[in-house]
UniProtKB/TrEMBL annotation:
GO terms for cellular component: basolateral plasma membrane. It comes from Mystacornis crossleyi. Gene3D superfamilies: 3.30.60.30. It is found in: Cell membrane. Keywords: Cell membrane, Disulfide bond, Glycoprotein, Ion transport, Lipid transport, Membrane, Signal, Transmembrane, Transmembrane helix, Transport. The chain crosses the membrane at residues 120-143, 155-177. Its main location: membrane. The lineage of its organism: Eukaryota, Metazoa, Chordata, Craniata, Vertebrata. It catalyses: 3,3',5'-triiodo-L-thyronine(out) = 3,3',5'-triiodo-L-thyronine(in); L-thyroxine sulfate(out) = L-thyroxine sulfate(in); L-thyroxine(out) = L-thyroxine(in). This is Solute carrier organic anion transporter family member 1C1. Residues 1-19 form the signal peptide.
Amino acid sequence: MSFLAYAISFLHFFVGCDNYVVAGMTVSYEGNPIPYHENSLLSDCNSHCKCASNVWDPVCGANGITYVSACLAGCETSVGHGKNTVFHNCKCLEINSSWTGNNSATLGQCPKSDDCSMKFIYYTVIQVIGGFCYALGATPAYMIMFRCVQPEFKALAVGLYTLIMRMLAGIPAPVYFGAVIDKTCLKWGSTSCGKRGACRLYDSNANR
């Protein structure tokens, strides 16, 4: 049952969502995909703006591409306040040769497709089935241990079994899983002290 749960978990590889389309990170400013970790936030369209590259205040361009900030999108004017702010004359939208619409942008990241929302449902179903199969094997594992160990050593056997599970899996797993996940971060946030904060954008494909 444990092996079956392990095999079921491999189905997660087929239900991943694509990356957010972020200029300079997952795609070039022209809209072409770029390799993982070969990103550059600065381009000819925003080089004259002297933008800060450590900020994360994304805007969604009318062309469907997310920009890290209105400054990095090359926007020159804005109207409205707060969440209703709309930026106009965004120069970086013009360099996408396939885009012929207006050069405006709104606050926030561009939404992902509806297909991604459906894949989250598939992910949840796979996770529940895999967890159920793993749970079916948990109690028999203890029963086998109780039946194979002499009565006076049962308590010691359970203690050693739990200790080894914690030492080899429970305690180190968050450390090395976290380290691997951090390697796929494309954009780190900054704290008020100027130190590295939480990850703002992960490379979904590399993470998966």
